[in-house]
């Protein structure tokens, strides 16, 4: 099996809603496991329904994972997720989905390097960059 690199997002709570949103944007198959379903994992009773692990796999081969971080553990920043390719219709569709209810920080338009590029923060506070190769406008 080849090595893959998969973004793994962390939230204090709400991972189920976040991943259902990303499923609506990207399509694919979402799997979720709660702490309770995994035998409790030593977590407080009030956190048993939180998502211990989730994974979205798209038909195009993308994988995105996320979890609710228990209150007893520190949570850090998530960074930025970048989408790039040359399928303008597909990437603009993702852009439209991600910006719905979010904030556009750099409009998706022709960049100095010739591609179309944009940046946004989705409604869950995750930063995204989208780059459409080939000089799309």
From TrEMBL:
Pfam families in the cross-refs: Glyoxalase (PF00903)
Domain named Glyoxalase/fosfomycin resistance/dioxygenase: residues: 16-130
Gene3D superfamilies recorded: 2,3-Dihydroxybiphenyl 1,2-Dioxygenase, domain 1
CDD domains per UniProt: PhnB_like
Record PANTHER family: PROTEIN YJDN, PROTEIN YJDN-RELATED
Protein name: VOC family protein
Source organism of the structure: Pseudonocardia humida
